[in-house]
Amino acid sequence: MKRDVISTPDAPGAIGPYSQAIGIEGLLFCSGQIPLDPATGEVVAGGINEQTRRVMENIRAVLAAAGSSFEQIVKTTIFLADMNDFASVNAIYGEYFPSNPPARSTVQVARLPRDVRVEVEVIALRK
After folding, report:
1. Torsion-angle region of residue 41: left (phi > 0), alpha (psi -120 to 50) or beta?
2. What percent of the chain has pLDDT over 90?
3. Rounded-to-integer distance, Cα 52 and Cα 44, Å
4. C-alpha to C-alpha distances, 121 to 1, 20, 60, nearest whole angstrom
């Protein structure tokens, strides 16, 4: 099996020993994205709405680099620093999946890297 390391400058570079995504066979495993601006590497300004949009756009960039898209996502996991943000995150997340959304888990965690409020990881099909 061929294992492809996916990397794009259109999403934040890894801040640790991991890849943005790994493709194997027809699957793509994307590392969790946090709301970092790819140009600066800094956490985006604003609250949960701005952070969620940045996360989803970072995911879009990684998917595109791998030849995939939101329509190809089969599973997501959302990590929240505060479950009270669920409704806001859910509303924005739903904009990216207007029909046939993937399977999903959402969990509250004690802390996220750089003290962000949201992180999302995905598994997608790859053409």
Report:
1. left
2. 95
3. 10
4. 23, 10, 12
- Tell me 44's DSSP state: P
Query: Three-state SS for 29?
Result: strand
For residue range 85-116, what is the model confidence (pLDDT) as tens digits? 999 999 999 999 999 999 999 999 999 999 99
**Mean pLDDT of the region 55-63:** 98
pLDDT of 104: 98
**Amino acid letter, residue 6:** I
User: What would the mean pLDDT of 40-63 be, rounded to a whole number?
Assistant: 98
Q: Kindly state the helix (H) or strand (E) to which residue 5 belongs, with its residue range.
A: strand 3-6
Distance (Å, rounded) from C-alpha 96 to C-alpha 99? 9
Tell me if 43 sits within 8 A of 114, measured CB to CB. Answer: yes
Domains by residue range for the chain, with CATH: 3-125 (3.30.1330.40)
Length of the chain equals 127
